[in-house]
Each structure stands twice: as C-alpha cells, then as structure tokens.
Design a protein that fits this description.
Layout lengths: L7 E6 L6 H14 L3 E6 L4 H4 L5 H14 L8 E3 L12 H11 L5 E6 H4 L8 H7 E7 L12 E7 L5 H9 L9 H10 L4 H10 L2 H21 L3 H10 L8 H12 L3 H9 L5 H11 L6 H8 L10 H12 L6 H12 L1 H19 L5 H15 L1
Parallel strand pairs: 1-2, 1-4, 2-3, 4-5, 5-6
Helix pairs in contact: 3-8, 4-6, 10-11, 10-16, 11-15, 11-16, 12-13, 12-14, 14-15, 15-16, 16-17, 16-18, 17-18, 18-19
This protein binds fe (ii) ion (2 copies).
C-alpha cells in the first residue's frame, strides 16, 4: 500500500560547491521525514552558463566530504545520484521527478528546496507535472519569507543559512576559505585546484610576491565589478589574475617571446622599439594560452590590452584595464576615485582610468603609446556621437 511506504526526497542543485546551507537543509529533511532515501542530484552544468564549473566528479567528492563533516556520511539512505549529470545536458526538474517516480513507485516523493527557490517555481518547466508526482519540501532562508504562495508545499522546521553560491565562488577565485564551506571541503578545493586554485598556484611561482599580491588585488576588484562591466565573474577573476603573468620576465626573455608575435603585429613592433616593458601584455596573453591553457578569446584580449588599452576593446578588457589601475593595492589618490566611481558609473570610470594613465604618461615626458591615445579619441567620439 502506497501510504505505508516511507518517503523519498530529491534534492537537486548545482552543488558548486556544496556548503553548510545545503547540508543543514538536508539534515533537517532527514530528521523531519525519516525517508527511505534522500538523493542529492547534482545537475549537469554547462560551461557557457558559468564558464568552468567544477566537474561532476569533483562536486561529488566535495559533497561526500561535506556529508561526512555534517555527520551524514555513511548513512545508507543518503545517496548522490548521477541522474542529471550523466545526461550531459540541462535536465529539467520534471524529468528528474519522473525518473525517481519510476524508481520508487508508490512512495511519497518530496522535492527539497530553500525558500529562495520557491518564488521562481512557477517559471520552471511543467510545474503541474512536478506537483502531481511530488510535494515541495521548503526550508526558510533569510530574505525569502515562506508566504502562502501559489503552490502548495510542506514547510521544513527551522531556519537555514543563506545559499549564495556566487558569493562563495567569488571568494574561492581569490584563494580565500569561505566560512560557509566545511573545512574539509575547503581543503579538498585547495588540493584539487578547483575555482582557479590551479592557476593561482602556477601564477605564484612565476611572479614576485609583490606582483602576485597586485594580481590578487586586481582580481578581487574585477570579480566585484564584473556585473557593472557586463562581464562574467569567473572570466573577470581569471583575466585579472593572469594579466601580469609575463611582467616579471627578464627583458631578454620577454623580447624572445614577443619577436615571433611582432612579425604579424605592427603595434607590438612599435612597442618593442619605444617602450619594451609594455610588451609584457602581449607576452602575457601568449603565456596565458601556452602555460595556463586559457583558450577564451575574451580573456586573452583582456590580458593583451591591459597595459595600453585600444579602441573597440570588449567589456572584459575594459574591466581588467580599469582594475589594473584602480585596485585596492594602488597607493595614488586617483585609484580610489576611479574605483569608487566604477561602482556608480562604470563607463565614466573607464574613461577616467584612460585619462589618468595618459596624464601620467604625458607627465613622464616620454613616448605615449598610440593605442592609448586612440582609445582616448574613440571614447570622445562615442561621447559626442
Ligand atoms: Fe601590466
Ligand atoms: Fe598590473
């Protein structure tokens, strides 16, 4: 008889990475419903949505570590299901519900979520199908009250931590250890080099400590400003981290790297002649590709143009150009002004960054890079046009 069967709980999500908010919700669901099974179902994450999510095997390993840390490891009813990830495409929740319905005929099915997800439920594919086969099991998260709402649900007793994975990932990109992750998960991330850890470790070896610190400052500002600049956070952090990856090369090594590139690049030939130190931007883009395995053209463009700028540069390149000048580690007063302005009006701050760089260049009395001047002129045309 169906009503005598124990419930089955489905917990879908990206778990990129799994944090206390996930595990506390799951623990409460286990206490309240005493289910026959609780399935974590990590989704398939498309690289285009979030640039480079942690791979499924990595998310599964982090989930296992988090389960053990939360005291849920080794419990037979707690499982990690490859159902969605194995399909190598976006799987809709109704499909997942249908799968577990077939697997557990007659058992009461529950779909676990935080109250932050409930408001969007009506926009999911086939909400009526989901509700015909499963009950929503909802835990209260801060800022998302459990109103009566349009759809029926079972409330979970208790209050649960916030679940902002974007903010957690932003900290991870910069090498921090977010408190909302269990220490074993932070350790695992460090060991595996997820969330740009591999890139940071390699970068640290190629730069002086001061330059590495400058790169982290630049990446912190780039990640924070990414939405204002119309760029993706992870791309912003990566491009900003690597922008000076060729800056500490000896002049002869820098020249050696650049000469083959200069055959096809008049601007680089001129740079090598007039201001060879600026060629580190071109060499940086090359090294990002060959040493760090970066293939994303926007990231490579941002590195190549960070020192001079250029007319028509894309949003990510503008962001890195600005952050290189205006990050927390810069001591001159204009840096703070440009930084504060960038959070209010990014385009105005970008023009200001170009202005500040030109003023310093003119004040130095030497050669001024034509690309920087062309950038200035293109921005004036844009303003008046
Ligand atoms: Fe640089
Ligand atoms: Fe820099």
């Amino acid at each position: 008889m169906a009503e005598h069967k124990k419930p089955v709980i489905i917990y879908g999500g990206s778990f990129d990475p799994p944090h206390r908010g996930h595990l506390e919700l799951a623990a409460a669901a286990l206490r309240q419903l005493r289910p026959a099974a609780l399935y974590f179902v990590p989704g398939f994450l498309t690289p285009f949505k979030d640039f480079a999510p942690a791979p499924y095997a990595g998310r599964r390993a982090m989930l296992r570590a988090a389960l053990a840390a939360a005291g849920l490891g080794g419990r037979a009813e707690v499982k990690i299901s490859p159902f969605e990830a194995a399909r190598r495409r976006v799987v809709y929740t109704w499909e997942t519900v249908a799968h577990f319905r077939r697997r557990h005929p007659g058992a009461p099915l529950y779909f676990l979520m935080g109250s932050d997800c409930l408001a969007g439920f009506g926009r999911w594919r086939r909400p009526d199908f989901i509700l015909a086969h499963a009950r929503l099991l909802v835990g209260l998260r801060p800022g998302h009250a459990l109103g009566r709402g349009e759809y029926p649900f079972t409330p979970l007793a208790g209050r649960f931590p916030e679940a902002d994975s974007t903010a957690i990932r932003e900290q991870l990109f910069l090498g921090r250890r977010p408190a909302r992750l269990y220490p074993v998960v932070n350790d695992l991330i460090g060991k595996k080099g997820f969330y740009l850890g591999r890139e940071r470790a390699l970068l640290k070896k190629t730069l002086t400590p001061a330059r590495y610190a400058h790169s982290l400052h630049t990446a912190a500002l780039a990640a924070a400003l990414a939405p204002a600049a119309g760029a993706q956070r992870q791309k912003a952090a990566l491009a900003a981290l690597l922008h000076d990856c060729a800056r500490d090369l000896a002049p002869a090594a820098l020249r050696r790297l650049c000469l083959p590139l200069a055959r096809r690049d008049a601007a680089l030939r001129e740079t090598l002649k007039e201001a060879p130190v600026l060629a580190h931007a071109w060499a940086g883009a090359l090294r990002a590709r060959t040493l760090f395995g970066v293939t994303d053209p926007e990231v490579l463009e941002a590195i190549k143009l960070h020192a001079t700028g250029a007319p028509g540069m894309g949003p990510l390149a503008r962001l890195v150009y600005l952050c290189d000048l205006a990050n927390q580690g810069r001591a001159f007063g204009e840096a703070g002004l440009v930084r504060r302005l960038a959070f209010i009006d990014f385009e105005a701050a970008f023009r200001a960054a170009n202005y500040v760089k030109l003023v310093y260049a003119f004040a130095g009395g030497g050669w001024v890079h034509p690309l920087s001047v062309q950038l200035w002129n293109s921005l004036q045309e844009k303003k008046s046009g």
